[in-house]
Amino acid sequence: QLLVYxxxxxxDGFPNLDSKESYKLIVSKGSxxxxxxxxxxxxxxxxxxxxxxxxxxxxTYYINETEIVDFPRFPxxxxxxxxxxxxLPLRAILETLDVMxxxxxxxxxxxxxxxxxxxxxxxxxxxxxxxxxxxxxTHVYTASDVRAVIEYARLHGIRVIPEFDTPGHTLxxxxxxxxxxxxxxxxxxxxxxxxPINPILNSTYEFVTSLFxxxxxVFPDFFLHLGGDEVDFTCWRSNPKIRAFMKEMDFGxxxxxxxxxxxxxxxxxxSSLGKGYIVWQEVFDNDVEVRPDTIIHVWKENLLxxxxxxxxxxxxxxxxxxxxxxxxxxxxxxxxxWMEAYRVEPLDFRGSPEQKALVIGGEACMWGEYxxxxxxxxxxxxxxxxxxxxxxxxxxxxxxxDAYARLSExxxxxxxxxxQAEPLYVGYCENE
Amino acid sequence: WGRRPLAAxxxxxxxxxxVVIEAPDPGCDSFPHLGSSEAYHLTVTEPVAVLKAxxxxxxxxxxxxxxxxxxxxxxxSFLVNESEIxxxxxFAxxxxxxxxxxxxLPLKSILTNLDAMxxxxxxxxxxxxxxxxxxxxxxxxxxxxxxxGAYSCNLxxxPADVRLVIEYARLRGIRVIPEFDTPGHTQxxxxxxxxxxxxxxxxxxxxGSFGPVNPILNTTYxxxxKFFxxxxxVFPDAYIHLGGDEVDFTCWKSNPEVKEFMKKQGFGSDYAKLESYYIQNILDIVSxxNKGQIIWQEVFDHKAQLKxxxxxxxxMANSYAHELSSVTGAGFPAVLAAxxxxxxxxxxxxWKKYYRVEPLDFPGSEEQKKLLIGGEACLWGEFxxxxxxxxxxxxxxxxxxxxxWSSRDVTDLQDAYRRLRNHRCRxxxxxxxxxxxxxxxxxxxxx
Lengths: 432, 447
Known about the structure:
The complex is a heterodimer of chains A (about 425) and B (about 450). Chain A is an alpha/beta fold and about 425 residues long. Chain A folds into two domains: about 1-70, Chitobiase, domain 2; about 75-415, TIM Barrel. Chain A has 15 helices and 16 strands. In chain A, the strands form four sheets. In chain A, strands 7-8-9-12-13-14-15-16 form an eight-stranded parallel barrel, surrounded by five helices. A four-stranded mixed sheet of chain A has the order 1-3-2-6, covered by helices on one side. In chain A, α10 links the parallel β14 and β15 (about 320-325). In chain A, α2 (about 90-100) runs parallel beside α4 (about 145-155) and α5 (about 200-220) crosses α8. In chain B, β10 (about 195-200) and β11 (about 205-215) form a beta hairpin. Chain B is an alpha/beta fold. The chains are: A alpha/beta (about 425), B alpha/beta (about 450). At the A-B interface, α13 of A face α14 of B.
């Protein structure tokens, strides 16, 4: 019998950034005790316990005497799924949540809508999914689906942070919200195509307020991810009314100022709804005024903007940072790329200890351009496990041979649990 | 949904597809081979469509095409356009290589893959069945090979399993060409066959580790004679793949007896000659069983003496066009794999790069080019098993399938993209978990 003692469970609440996930596990002859401050630590401890139990050739279950005191290094350990580039059926999301829990991930970053499709069924604006989903009957998440995801996640100690990315990445919003997106112009005429959300209309901000009012009530987490990445200015530039606005505001030719104007208003709206926000790094890079408790999500990695520099800049400015740049798991390549993900040291950048304390964790991202239910699980696991360990374990845990041995065994464990995790390298599982 | 308008219900109906096989021996009871006829003529017109082929293999291809012509309308009715199609493959050898040694593949995976191959008109299953890491082939004459060499006792292919694969393939017009790769890639053979592999030496002492098959012992050739007798009878195809790639000479060089043999044979220090000596013996053995041989390019490159119809498989990516020239220039048939190593995954729509390959883009005469008999998409198993095989192979391999079947001028990428997307959705409907080509959705995928 495993005795579980929890000081202040909080079973009816939702996990949050400050939840206590520490636990103590003592296995000795005659007694097994798992103790934790909160239920979230119990969940982590139970997962560890389940991984300690082995089975011998006779089929007998056994466990070594052990004493474990464990707690996560970073409080935000997330996984991003993209349900816009490809719809993911509910079962795929729920299965992913299961495996996240096996890996002690505690944040599901739901990048739910984007340019290609709008699968989120909004009660305030039903036309959004009616006109914007790939198929309004079969490729949507109903209110009940969303509730199911949130509750399933909660029971696994996982926060659900939805991302409604604006003002770019919004093409699918257009059909269901006429007048929301900027009409692009070719010479003097509308071209028929659309660009980012139109930042100069009052109707835009009325819409945004209503939508985020709904989103704030549907999703219980304190944080919302507001996106703000990759805003293409070409369409804004082409639109005469926007050009006129730019002149009026004295913005010159600096469209970053227009983007900032939009973002600032959006942040105010979301703030007044009682939510905190996470934004992609461009919002910070473009000097938008953000609240001190804003979380900046660092995702870019190239010669111009190496992510370590960005981490230094973001934290030097006093903001909290989330790291994803080296963990874009959708960027597949030949060989054991889990090693590269594992070797990342999130705090390896130039900064003071106070700065480094502002790094609250990171997220493995599985963008959906080439991913749907046919290949999601093998592409995610066990590779994401490397990120999970990097975010939970001590920075000193980095021996590659040891990690390989444990990760390949864990992969077999996943197989045994019915998860189609792909192989790390040649070999086989006993339970195959 | 409303009722269909009255006029529409008077539409022409297709009530029958007649299949006519013209050859006196249609081939239904035989195995497909390199020279099989896969051409067909399909006429779709009401009320009876006719599919004519010389041999049953052409009928299979035509039936696949017919199945792709049928589409569903919004009311759930099945429709097919009036068409007349005269079709035949550009290349006769259109293969998929699967590797069941780096990872065991359960029978189901292999059979599902044969289905997918048939949907893509592939006609050769190149079964790279054993290698260094494991020996899952259960041999009748040498049961110890898999007893000791398989990953575990249940991760094997019994004779019944093998027969099932061969018959399942045959019914789909697919040849099964087994590859028993020697003298390199044979670590797992040594577990169950003592003294087969060369003991490596260091400072005059055996190290305990082993290298390639030992080419100097008579016992080696006694073993191979018996082993390939079994293989020749188990696998009905006219060809056996004998491997011959990546032979590491280090262990041979370290072994005093091998060094002695080199001296006696007058090979000097050219171990490629020893490799050729070995391979030639194996080729002779297999020849004596009336089987044709396929070998990897190194065997040709190292100047072994090959029988006239030996097929050389070109796999090294570096200058493969040059290699094709050399191989065909020397008068040997060639199979191209080099640009189609599908295990080399990368981010993005890499199917395009496979599609863009033009196999005959190498310097050579008309006669030479005729010797390029086809190609193979290879899915080596280092990072592949049943959990990710299907999405990794399909629909990427479909690009190779079309390149090998269709005419040289079928190259429009935009058109291919549109058709490939449709085809991917079709494979999904048929239970093949092919991965997406790009952003989007399939009409029939579910919640």
